[in-house]
Design brief:
The chain has five helices and no strands. The chain is mainly alpha-helical.
Length: 116
């Protein structure tokens, strides 16, 4: 056995890094809290409660949530190259945000119609 064959046998695999992503399995709106919860091993319900309280204390968490939804890749895009994942994440997040805001708008119209 020569030196090159010995070196090839002693190669150890590098550990995979845990990446922050939006969750598709544990989501209420866009999967931001579910993804953060999975990454840091925190209950997503607790994170959702923090975001909800932040909305009532000034609303800055709405902007934070929207930014995170746009910049965090979804969990099915983790195997893509970073540039491709970023493009897919942007397109997917914008589509989901439009869908969610449309649904919320429809519910608010329904509520105001019932009240008025």
């Amino acid at each position: 056995m020569d030196e090159n064959q010995t070196a090839d046998l002693n190669v150890t695999p590098t550990p995979s890094k845990k990446r922050l992503h939006r969750s598709s399995s544990d989501k209420m709106l866009l999967g931001v809290c579910g993804g953060i919860g999975e990454h840091f091993d925190i209950d997503p319900t607790f994170l959702r409660l923090i975001f909800a309280v932040g909305v009532f204390l000034g609303g800055s968490t709405i902007l934070l949530y929207a930014v995170l939804a746009i910049i965090m890749p979804s969990d099915h895009g983790l195997d893509l190259e970073p540039r491709d994942a970023a493009h897919e994440t942007m397109d997917e997040a914008v589509t989901e945000i439009r869908s969610v805001t449309g649904k919320l708008g429809a519910k608010l119209k329904g509520l105001t119609g019932k009240l008025g």
